[in-house]
Amino acid sequence: MTYDVAIIGSGPAGYTAAIYAARAGLKLILIAGPEPGGQLTKTSEVENFPGYPNGILGPEMMEDFRKQAERFGTPIIYDMVEKAELRTSPKVLWLSGGDEIHAEAVIIATGSSPKWLGLEAERRLYGAGVSACAVCDGFFYRGQPVAVVGGGDTACEEALYLSKLCSEVHMLVRRDEMRASKVMQDRVKNTPNIHIHWNTVTVDILGERFVEGVRVQNRLTGEEKVIPIKGFFVAIGHQPNTEIFRGQVDLDAQGYIITKPKSTETNLEGVFAAGDVQDPVYRQAITAAASGCMAALDAERWLTTRKHLLHTDGTSHIVPS
Ligand code: NDP
Fold this sequence. Notes:
The protein is of the alpha/beta class.
C-alpha cells in the first residue's frame, strides 16, 4: 500500500501534522521514532503552552497530543526509520523492525537530541551519574550534590528542578554571562543552594563506576579544582536528528533542515519538515506544533495539485488510495 503521507516523529510537530492530515482525509501513517512523544516526555511542567492555564506535565501533554491524533484515525507505528529514499515516487522508508513504508509525501518531524561535551568519562559514566535529563534522573541524587553544565534556559530549568531534590547544585557556565532568559537567570541566582561557577569548563568527570566529582578549570586564571558531586547533568543545547536524510535533504551548517521561507517545503518535491528539526531559533512546543500544522497543509496542497496534474496528462503513477 502507498500512503498519501508518512509522518516521521511523534513530538508536537509530528502529532499536530497527523491531526491536520487525518482530518483532511489523507491516508497517513505516523512513525513514532526512538522516543515516542519526543523531548517533552523528558521535561517537567509546561507553563507556556496556551490552553493549559494551570500548566501541565510534559509527558501528559504528549499523551493528549497522541490521543487527539488517534481520535481522527492516525495509525501509529512504534518503530524508527533506519533509512530513507526521498527522491523517488513514492518515497520509501525502511524501519528498524523490518517494515517498509511507501508514501507520496513525507513530513520530517524528527526533532533534536541533547548535545554532549565529548568527554570519554561522559560515555563511560552515562547512567552511573551522567545524564542529560534532570527530570528523569534527578531523583537518584536526592540529598546529594550535583553539577549542571550550560548557561541556557535548559540548564537553568535543570538546575532549578535539581535544587529542590539535591543538597547543592553547581552550575558550570563557560562564559561570564548566561544565554538564558532574564527571568530564568534571576530564579537561579535567587536559589540559595545553586552555586554558579562563571568562566568554568569541565576538564574531566571523576569516578570509576559512579560519578564522584568533576574536575573544572577557570578559563581566565587556568586554575583547576575538584568539586565533589554524585550527578553530572549536561544541558548545552541540542543536535537536530537529520543524519539519515543527509545527502538528500538540504541541511544548514548545524544540520538543521532548510525549509523555504514561509513554508515547510524542503529542496525535495513532496518532502516537508516541521518542528525542531528545521528550527534552530524558536524551538518551542507551540512553534513546533504550529509548523506541524503548516506541514500537513503544505503536504495536502501538494498532493492535491499533483494528483490533479497527473490526472490531466494521464501519466499518473500515484497508487490510488
Ligand atoms: P542554548 O543553545 O540556548 O544554550 C546552550 C548553553 O550551553 C549556552 O549557555 C552555551 O554556552 C552552553 N554550551 C554549549 N556548548 C558548551 C560546551 N561544550 N561546554 C559548556 N557549555 C556549553 O540551549 P538550551 O537547550 O538551553 O535552549 C534551547 C532553546 O530552548 C532556547 O531557545 C531556549 O530559550 C529554549 N528553552 C526554553 C525553556 C522555557 O522557556 N521554559 C526551557 C528550555 C529551553 P555559550 O552561551 O557560551 O554558547
